[in-house]
């Protein structure tokens, strides 16, 4: 068990791999820092999530930084012992591959946001990814579990740009913001707005 206070680092990019982790409580922010010092959030892991499985077999150390967003506790599954267990229990390898596949889908979605969309479309895409009914008309609530600056970093925009973008979506009556909750008034209409934005960009 590893206990972390807010902003404590669990590991840094390039450090040798001890194993992979499961979040018991709290939130862990996986990010990289560019050559010019800009932070890029890759993903935020919550209670029950596992991460850093790929480092078990890469032999190159951890590919990014891991830092606690809140007071957190994680469980370390040591590399040597776990790899030995995989040899005896191949079904565990299949489960680990499924987890790594989910992480890869998150990275692909991130790359899609960074390369294909402007700030407004990125923001809408983020909202739709966190909406379980993106093609329905019924309102849907998204509870913000971490600060807006983390969402902004995940979208590769500034906090100010995120605030302005959310304000525009509110003016268009696509969302409503109530404290730490974003209410998507009509997910289907929001998805249509994103398609229209992409069509204009093309």
- The strand order across the widest sheet is 1-8-3-6
CATH architecture call of the largest domain: Sandwich
One letter per element, helices H and strands E, the order comes to: EEEEEEHEEHHHEHHEEH
Q: Write down the CATH topology of the largest domain.
A: Jelly Rolls
Coarse structural class: alpha+beta
Overall form: elongated
CATH-wise, what's the superfamily of the largest domain?
Jelly Rolls
Report the average pLDDT across residues.
86
Can you offer a commentary on this structure?
There is one protein chain. The protein is elongated. The model has no long low-confidence stretch (mean pLDDT 86). Helix 2 crosses helix 3, helix 4 (119-129) packs antiparallel against helix 7 and helix 5 (148-154) packs across helix 6. It is built from seven helices and eleven strands. Helices cover 43% and strands 25% of the residues. The strands form three sheets. The protein has a four-stranded antiparallel sheet with strand order 1-8-3-6.
